[in-house]
Amino acid sequence: MDSAGTRPGDRTNPARATKSADAGTRPGLTIQLANPRGFCAGVERAIQIVERALEKYGRPVYVRHEIVHNRFVVEGLEARGAIFVEELEDVPDGFPVVFSAHGVPKSVPAEAERRDLFYLDATCPLVSKVHREAERHFKNGKQIILVGHAGHPEVVGTIGQLPEGAVLLVQSVEDVATVEVADTSNIAYVTQTTLSVDDTAEIVDALCKRFALIDGPKKEDICYATTNRQEAVKAIARNCDAMLVVGAPNSSNSLRLVEVAQRNGCARARLVQRASEIDWDWLGKAERLGITAGASAPETLVNEVIEAVRERFDVTIEEISGINENVTFKLPRVLANA
Ligand code: SF4
C-alpha cells in the first residue's frame, strides 16, 4: 500500500492551466498547485467513521482527541453532534466513543472495555501496521527503537502498544549516537508514519551504521500519503518564490511539507490554517506561489486560499500532474452498511 499510485504524466508539465476571467490591473501571480495534496485515505476513513457513527447511533458521539489534526474538520463534526475530549475519563458511561486516526496506547481500549463503553477505532491502518510490526519484534525478544517526535499522539500510541521500557524513542541523528540499548545484536526499529523522508533516511542510516544487526522495515514506515505529498512539494519548490502549506500547526505531515519546501529551493514557505492567516506583506511581490495541503486539510480550505489570492492578484493556476493515488481503507464492519 505504501507504494500505491502511478505516474500518469510528466509532473513538470502543467496538467491544467487556468487564468482569472477578469484580468485587470492587479499584479499577475502564477499559482503552482502541488499534486497530490490534502486528504489521505486514513483521514477520509477516520472522518467517515465519526459521520457514520453519528448517523447510526445519534448524537452525541464522543471522539478521543481531534479525529484528525484540523480545526475546520473538527468544528464541522462538532456541529453535527460529535464531542471531542482528550481522555477517556471525559466520556460519560453509555455513549459511543471513537479513537482518532493517530492511534492509541493499548491501555485505552482496555479501559473502554473495563467500563463497557462501545468504541470504534479510527486508527489509520498504516499506523496499525506499525503497531503490529513493533509487537512482532517484541515477541521475537527484540528491543525496539522508534524514530519519531516526542509527544505526538501517534508516537504515544505506538510506544503504548508494548510494556513500559520496551520502546526507546530517537528523534535525531544525535539521539542515535547516545541511545543506550541492552543488547546491540537484538534490536529493531520502526518509525512514525508522517516524518520527513529525507531526515528519516539519515536517522535510519545512522542506526544501521551504529547497530549493524538492527532489524527493521525495508526503508522506513513513512506512509504513501506523506511520501507523495513531500515529493509533490519537491517538484514545484524550486519554481516558486513562496509556498503556502494549508494545514494545522499540530499536523506533523503539514509541518514537514513546510520544511521540505524550505530545503528544496523555496525558503519562503509557511503554514496557514485558513485564508485569513495569509500575511500579504510576507507574500509581497511574489510572482510564483506554490500551494499544497497536509493530509488532514480538506480541499475546501485550499480553494478558500486560492480565492483570497484571486482577490488581490490576476491569477493563473498551474496544477502539476503527479502521482495518482488510489488507496482506500475499509470501514469497521459494524459501520460498513450504516
Ligand atoms: S497521513 Fe498516512 S498514516 Fe496518517 S492517516 Fe494519512 S495515510 Fe494514514
Q: How do you describe this structure in short?
A:
The chain has twelve helices and 13 strands.
Give an overview in words:
This protein is 36% helix and 18% strand. By secondary structure, the protein is α/β, with parallel strands linked by helices. α8 packs parallel to α9. The two termini are 26 Å apart. The site of iron/sulfur cluster (SF4) has 15 residues, from α1, α4 and α8.
Give the overall silhouette: flat
- Structural class call reads alpha/beta
Percentage of residues in strands: 15-25%
State the helical fraction.
Answer: 25-40%
**Bound small molecules, deduplicated:** iron/sulfur cluster
Overall mean pLDDT score? 93
Distance linking N and C termini: 26 Å
Order of helices and strands: EEHEHEEHEHEHEHEHHEHEHEHEH
Give the biggest sheet: 6 strands, mixed
The main sheet orders its strands as 1-13-2-12-10-11
| Helix count, DSSP H or I runs of 4 or more residues | 12
Number of strands: 13
Contiguous low-pLDDT stretches (5 residues minimum) are 1-15
Rg computed from alpha carbons, rounded to a whole number of angstroms: 21 Å
